[in-house]
Amino acid sequence: MKRTALALLMIVATLLAACGGAPAAAPATGGEQAAAGGGEKVTLRVWSHQNPSFIQANEAVIAKFMEQNPDIEVTYEQFEYAQFIQALQTSMQAGTEADVIEMFGSWVCSYASGGRLAEVPVDVMSYTEAQELFFAAPLDGYYCDGKLYGLPNEFNLEVGGALVNPALFEGKDVPYPPVWDTMDTLREQAAKLSEFDGDTMIRAGHHFVGGDGLPFLLLEGILEQGGTYFAEDGKHFNFDTPEAVATIQLLVDMAQKDKLVDPVLFNGEANQPYDGFFAGVVASSFIGSWAAGQGLVNYPDFEFDYVNTPILFGTQRKFAADAGWGKVVSANSANQEAAWKLVEFMAAEQENALTFNGTTGTIPALKALVDNPQGLLEQAPWVEPTFKLLPDGEYLGNVTDRDKLFYEIIYPAVLQALQGSMSAEEAAQTIQAQANEMVDTAP
Amino acid sequence: MTQAAIAGDPGAPRKERAGLRPGQRTFVWGALIPIFLYLGVFALFPMIWVVVLSFFSYSPVRVGDGLLGLGGRNPFIGLENFTSMLADTQTAQLFRTSVKNTLIFAFLVLVVNLAITLPLAVLVESVHNRVKGVVRAIYFMPTISSAVAVAIMWGYVFHPQQGLLNNFIKLIGLTPPKSWLTDPGAAVFGVPLAMVAVIIAYVWQDFGYNLVIFIAALQGIPHDIRDAAQIDGASGWQQFRRITVPLLRPTLLFVCTLTMISSFQVFVIFQVMTGGGPQNQTRSLTMDIYENAFRYQAMGWAAAMSLILFAMVLIVTLVQFRVLRTDWEY
Amino acid sequence: MATVDLTQSSSPSVARRNPLARIGTYAVLAIGLAVTLVPFIWILMTSLKPASEIVRIPPTFFPEQWSLNSYQTIFNDPKVPLARFYLNSTLVSVGRVVITLFTSSLAGYIFAKFVFRGKNLLFGFILIQLMIPFQVVMIPAYLILVQLRLIDSLWGLVIPSMVDAFGIFLMRQFISTFPNDLIDAARIDGASEFGVYWRVVMPNLGAPLATLGIFTFMATWNDYLWPLIVITTHEKRTLPLLLTWYTSQHGQRYDLTMAASILVLLPILVVYIFLQRWIVRGVALTGMK
Question: How far, in Å, CA of C84 to CA of C245, rounded?
């Protein structure tokens, strides 16, 4: 008796353990049951990367949405940036991802082409309607192969501005706030802001050596000299050009000749442009205006301003813009209707979009908020310097894997040039070879 | 491998009981069948699957036609994953760099670890029992700490301006390195400084294991032998070299193999402390596998790389057995 | 560190007789203790400084101004359900310990005390398992969890490791020394086979079970890579994941990061202080890692 019981017990235990997990995973698709139940409450899950000001903004808008839609319950989760990317990929295979996902515009098409995202229903918004409402640079990141896969919240802009710390300008014989019309002025003045302890830089005058900074500066430099970074087929790249080399050389000179920043101590891994600025070791930090919004939330007592930085080459500014953050709906979502209702609510309704951009200090994707900027400027006055730049931005284009190109190809190569272990020419050639390998081996 | 392995006779299964009685059969197979069914699913099958995957260009992002998502858009490519390891592409270069880094790391960890733990064990063994217990317990403490916390802790110790280490170096009047973790140009005897830093942190965390094992092994050496040697006029060094080390040989063999194999598998401290930088100087094979499998979803390629890791473990085990056996029998 | 001078005291008798060697020995041991302990103390002290003191160059070692601010900030952070993370880590660790001890001792007992066809084959399979690094089977194990829909579930952290080859091996070694007479006596008294295992063998396995249990617990508690792959939801995270989440969120806020590290380290260090005898002996006895 007992022996048979044991044998049974063991088998049952194994089976139970194996199956027990399935119910545990079920809440992920809990929406189905709710929807099937008719009058029951629909539960929507929302995912975003974690950035305090983004969370604050999304929470406020979601709370308002739930108030107006008592039949919809929204749960909101956040992920650390690197884990967010991994979580998206693994969960989408397992079907456990959220209904509504805050996605970076430049990622959207790669997920859409894998069949992971739902198309915007025409009764919610057509592409033509969206074109009226949103700037082209952010919107085009959500438009893949003639279909629209989500709505943008943000016009991503990482160029043309810098955070400045008044405390580190004191006694340096540099006017504050600085007016940097030309690169020569910036280089001359920022050089005075760097501080040294012996040979070691302890404070950087102008920190631009970041994972976003270097790639965007490179692209801006290429465009302003009239060049292009795409090859003729529009898919491969051409970085081995005089324009690219000249841009990299300019950055190298700023680091090595002017000593605006020591790329060994200040880079994307240590004393990053954002962290280093708010740790008080960077006088001016080349970064997008979002950093000001995030800084206000994280460091409420820190005094700083956001100022324009000059054009790199020539007289006409031209820059590549990312599509920026926005909202998409998973193809697996069982509550498409409710999900799109939320997306439209968060991205297309002026008042809520204003809450988002105002709180996060990002530049609106919605044209109306820039045409009538009073509301936004009351909440986030520092974004004003960026408004005059917006018409000069063009969409980055389909660069296969944006994060890989930026963070693992362009950034490391330019960094090596700045650190002196490669010439500008070699850096350009390295980027060229690796970027095209990325295109050729993309899944 | 263990002292318990020397099984006492009274416990040996009796030879005459060659078969199982019916009741025993139910018990034995009732217990083993579920356990081995389970191992089939979670041990044998993964091992077979990883070999199969390594022959495919498999990415779970793509939907394949055949069994387990293989075939179709996840085509069979024969040995291409392995031959492409030697190709002149960035991916292959990165793989080779990570293998090289892992080998350098494992070798240096072994040397540094043994150079510290073996003499230290002798010292700990020589002190009063009560002191010995306390000292051993404290030395062992880092090994039970979370590797993530250790990596964060040491990342801060190595901080160029605020870090403990550089300020200590300044305090004693020397010039500290500019930056431990982010300076691609800095090296010590050709080993990148960031790698040195990772090795320091890892050895700090890990030395307690070997220390405790050596102390236990030393306690197993009869005092008579050493006393006799002393009476014969052998110096401390001679005793250590001629008596202690040879008697420790089995332990040494075990410790070397284990240290090296576990160094191959280190992931957290690389990932958290340096993220593989600067310029991939501390990118480990485990990091490369993880990133390719879970960030880029190139799982076929990652499976092939993980088989290389397996081969490394296997080779080291075999080679170390041989080297220690032949080298020491002079 | 290893010099001829130091190793000269390799014999206890030398150390006891020669006062110079004795002083040298204690000096080296003290340096070793300092190197081991100072990093712990350093992050503890850092976590007790106000943020403004931390960024000072050169830094202070002991706080000039003691402050619990960083801990308060973490406890009051609505985004950090700390109790939940502790619970997750505890559930997964305890779950794995209980299951592993059961399966290891049961299979270990059978391999030690029974003779049956296919035994060597099956035990050989267990031994081969010992040689396979986790990273090698990580990818298929993940794909299996996807099929079983265990991704983003705490079960996904327990289920793939319910049978531990090393545990079986270890238990077999210990149980081999267990006297057959006791087992036979129990059988004569009418105990079932399971009863023999449960009432006679198990109660005598205190030391090895404790060792295996503690190590399984610590390995699970500190595990980072597998939870990183399996868990996606914030509330389901285990403590080590919290730590990297916290670092990347707060970047250079060393006050918060170090306080979070202390919060992760503390429970296991407390456990260690009480169980260190078992743990250290266990390592010496089994070479467990």
Answer: 15
Q: Does B45 touch chain A (CB under 8 A)?
A: no
Instruction: Tell the residue number behind the tokens 């939940």, with chain if given.
Output: C84
Q: Pick A21's closest partner by Cβ from C153, C195, C244.
A: C153
Above 80 in pLDDT, residue A443? no
Put simply, whether the predicted model's pTM sits higher than 0.90 gets the answer no
Among candidates A200, A265, A420 on the partner chain, residue whose Cβ is nearest the Cβ of B182: A265
Nearest CA-CA partner of A318 in A89, A159, A147 = A159
Mark yes or no for CB contact C234/A79 under 8 Å. Answer: yes
| Among chain B residues, CA nearest to C286 | B2
Backbone Cα Rg of chain C? 24
Would an 8 Å CB–CB cutoff place A416 in contact with chain B? yes
Q: How deeply is C241 buried, as exposed, middle or buried, from its count of CB atoms within 10 A (0-12, 13-18, 19+)?
A: buried
Which residues does chain C have within 8 Å of residue B42's beta carbon, measured at their own beta carbons?
141, 144, 159-163
DSSP summary character for residue B297 = -
- In angstroms, the CA A235 to CA A233 distance is 5
Q: B173-188 pLDDT, tens per residue?
A: 888 888 899 888 889 9
User: What letters, b where the CB count within 10 A reaches 16 and e where it falls short, cover C162-197?
Assistant: bbbbbbbbbbbbbbbbbeeeebeebbeeebbbbbbb
Could you count the other beta carbons within 10 Å of the beta carbon of residue A373?
A: 16
Handedness of CA C87, C89, C91, C94 (dihedral sign): negative
Buried/exposed B83-94: b ≥16 CB within 10 Å, e otherwise = ebbeeebbbbeb
Query: Token digits for B115?
Result: 């150079």
Q: What whole-number distance in Å separates Cα of residue C38 and Cα of residue C41?
A: 5
Distance between start and end Cα atoms, chain C: 25
Q: Note every long-range contact of C108-111, with CB atoms under 8 Å and residues 24 or more positions apart, other chains counting.
A: C108/C167, C108/C168, C108/C169, C108/C170, C108/C171, C108/C172, C108/C173, C108/C174, C108/C175, C109/C171, C109/C172, C109/C175, C109/C197, C109/C201, C110/B27, C110/B28, C110/B31, C110/B32, C111/C168, C111/C172
List of chain B residues whose C-beta atoms are within 8 Å of the C-beta of residue A264: 178-179, 182-185
In this complex, do C142 and A28 lie within 8 Å of one another by their Cβ atoms?
Answer: no
Q: What's the sign of the alpha-carbon dihedral A154, A158, A161, A167?
A: positive
A144, β-bridge pairs = A147
pLDDT (tens digit, 9 = 90+) per residue, C180-197? 888 888 888 888 889 999
| Domains of chain A by start residue, with CATH | 33-156+322-395 (3.40.190.10), 159-320+399-441 (3.40.190.10)
Q: Give the model confidence (pLDDT) of A131-146 as tens digits.
A: 999 988 889 889 988 8
Alpha-carbon distance C205 to C201, whole Å? 7
To the nearest whole Å, the CA of C243 is away from the closest chain A CA by 11
Express each pLDDT in A181-192 by its tens digit. 999 999 999 999
CATH 3.40.640.10 fits B94-324, yes or no: no
What does the DSSP 8-state code read for residue A239?
-
Q: Yes or no: say if A157 and A288 are a contact pair by the CB < 8 Å rule.
A: yes
**Domain boundaries along the sequence of chain B:** 94-324
Q: Please give the domain boundaries of chain C with CATH numbers for all domains.
A: 2-71 (no CATH), 77-285 (1.10.3720.10)
C-alpha radius of gyration, chain B, whole number: 25
Is ipTM > 0.85 here?
Answer: yes
The pLDDT tens digits of the residues spanning A390-423 come to: 878 888 888 888 888 998 899 999 999 999 989 9
Distance to chain B for C27, nearest Cα, Å: 10
In SS3 terms, C225-266 reads as HHHHHHCCCHHHCCHHHHHHHHHHHHCCCHHHHHHHHHHHHH
Torsion over CA: B44, B47, B52, B53 (sign):
positive
Distances (CA, A) of B155 to A276, A409, B101, C194: 16, 25, 19, 52
